[in-house]
Amino acid sequence: MRCLIVDDETICRKAVALILKEVAHCDEAVNGSEAVLKFSEALQRDEPYDVIFLDIIMPGLDGHDTAREIRRVEREVSSSPTVKIIMLTVLDSVNDAMKSFCHAHAIAYMVKPPSKERFIETFKEVGLL
């Protein structure tokens, strides 16, 4: 499984990559613009990501805008989205969760810091494991 972890905080990216190292090859992006670029490049190489973990609060493109851009890029290549987006954020708010599902087409919403067990549980819930 190929995974892209998008977070402006290094420690968060490294923690997620460490948790997922047994089940996924993880790339990292420090902001939304870099994430969109890496996503586009992976599609062009025919090595698409299976899942993107996306922080909401980031400088520049926030997580919701980044997800919309990723979906736009995806629509240019295919008629249906294929990458699964999981929002991973400190925001424990119903409003942000709904915005993630409705506008960013996320399949899951996790509040930081999640445990390894929570990651595995979420992966099973969304059909990644």
Looking at the structure, what is the overall shape? globular
> How helix-rich are the residues, as a percent range?
40-55%
- CATH superfamily grouping: Response regulator
Determine the strand fraction and express it as a percent band: 15-25%
What does this entry look like structurally?
The chain has 5 helices and 5 strands. The chain is an alpha/beta fold and 129 residues long. The chain has one domain: Response regulator (Rossmann fold). It has a 5-stranded parallel sheet, sandwiched between helices. Helix 2 runs parallel beside helix 3 (63-77). The longest helix has 15 residues, at 63-77. 32% of the residues are buried.
Question: Key terms for this structure?
Answer:
129 residues; alpha/beta; Rossmann fold; 45% helix
Structure summary:
The protein is α/β, with parallel strands linked by helices and 129 residues long. Helix content is 45%, strand content 19%.
